Amino acid sequence: MVSLLASGAASSAGTTAWVALAYLAAGVLFILALRGLSSPETSRAGNRFGMIGMLIAVVTTLVTHSIASIYEILIAVAIGGLIGFTIARRIAMTAMPELVAAFHSLVGLAAVLVGWAAFLEPGAFGLLVGDTIGQVSRVEMALGVAIGAITFSGSVIAFAKLSGRMSGSPILLPMRHVINLGTLVAIIVLTALFTMGEIASQDYFIAITVLAFLVGFLLIIPIGGADMPVVVSMLNSYSGWAAAAMGFTLGNSAMIITGALVGASGAILSYIMCKAMNRSFISVIAGGFGADDSGGGDGEPREQRPYKQGSAADAAFMLEQAEKVIIIPGYGMAVAQAQHALREMCDLLEEKGVEVKFAIHPVAGRMPGHMNVLLAEASVDYDKVFELEDINSEFAQADVAFIIGANDVVNPAAKTDKSSPIYGMPVFDVDKAKQVFFIKRSMGGVGYAGVDNDVFYMDQTMMLLSDAKKMVEEIVKGLD
């Protein structure tokens, strides 16, 4: 009997060591994935590392836990895989921001469902201490459910704003700061009561869940379109922390590692983007600014001021004469899906001996890295793409600044107008270029920040009023 027990203990220890090693390997691969995704050149390798790490984590969990029959699990995986494959095949690159927001909402909802499953069946999760759920487990469950619920409802609002199902303009409720703070304080108090009670009260747990859903909604609706890239990054961070909290509840070290990595990286990215906008993270969460813009610039002009309008033929002729051209893409390029035509224009200019570079602002588009993804899809060489701090000084030597669909990120009001909502945000110095071409659909739109742009009216600016893709294609014909 003693030898049998010893043998069983050794076997259990061996299994535990194997599981720990597998989860450690998965964690290392996740770290390598994040490192790879930090650069366009290594992003493919980073994705592969992440996929392999997740495969190891999932297989290890399935092998070591009696969750359900393998057939049920395979059916669920097949259904989910088919849905994911279908979405990935059909989704347009312009819809990637709202897709990311939708994925964040699913992570948050999963955290809520896991938390409630653990609350309703604590014995199955090994959370019982005597006849009730242990206090440490209650803290983990409450935090996981609260963060998950905030992530879910906040991501749903972000999805609605990004997809145009809801206005991108900030919805400012009266006394919103007091309401938000009061709701967050109530969640903290309820969590304390839920944790310190003799039993785990279902009423407290329900209240925590409902208020967390509510505060996620309240936190995102006042945030305007100009801050949406930060919101997407912030929600990514929330989803990571929710997963990490559930990892503690489930006793799964892979979830803890993965959630912590996602949460920390999302928080760091949000900080970097806020710094790029010269805004504090708290101000983005608490307020937000911006007016709705469809990306096309339609609407009534704010002010009738004289401007120069040119044609594709004019632009093609002057681009051919240039020695150095810097292209600044924005969300309008994404809406028009003009990246492939732009790459073709770039290739023709380089054949004629023109130096072409791309300038990417950290908050261009509707999510972090949006423009980088679009240019990579069009096979633009990575070494031609530069961030703001690396290329801004070169505009003074540029013959042409070619702006396609961008607006706020080139607006000099950020440097000169203290009353402007974008004042202090670093922008491209396109006003220093010898010639500026500005593609937008009409003079009506003023960008997400809701302010006019003096670049439209500069002496060296030529407005090319048309759909971005159509205009670039006409320029390409003029270059042939």
Key features of this structure:
single chain, 480 residues, alpha/beta, Rossmann fold, six-stranded parallel sheet, two-stranded antiparallel sheet, 8 strands, elongated, disordered N terminus
Could you give a quick summary of the protein structure above?
The transhydrogenation between NADH and NADP is coupled to respiration and ATP hydrolysis and functions as a proton pump across the membrane. Helix content is 59%, strand content 7%.
Strand arrangement across the biggest beta sheet? 5-4-3-6-7-8
Distance between the termini: 88 Å
**Would you tell me the structural class of the helices and strands?**
alpha/beta
> What gyration radius follows from the Cα positions, in whole Å?
26 Å
Uncertain parts: 1-14, 289-301
**Structural domain tally:** 3
- Write down how many β-strands occur, each being a DSSP E stretch of 2 or more residues: 8
Helix content: 55-70%
Bin the strand percentage. 5-15%
Mean pLDDT: 83
Q: Quick one: biggest sheet?
A: 6 strands, parallel
Q: Please, could you describe this protein's structure?
A:
- The chain has 480 residues and is α/β, with parallel strands linked by helices.
- Helix content is 59%, strand content 7%.
- It is built from 17 helices and eight strands.
- Strands 5-4-3-6-7-8 form a six-stranded parallel β-sheet. It has a two-stranded antiparallel ribbon with strand order 1-2.
- α4 runs antiparallel to α5 and α13 packs parallel to α17.
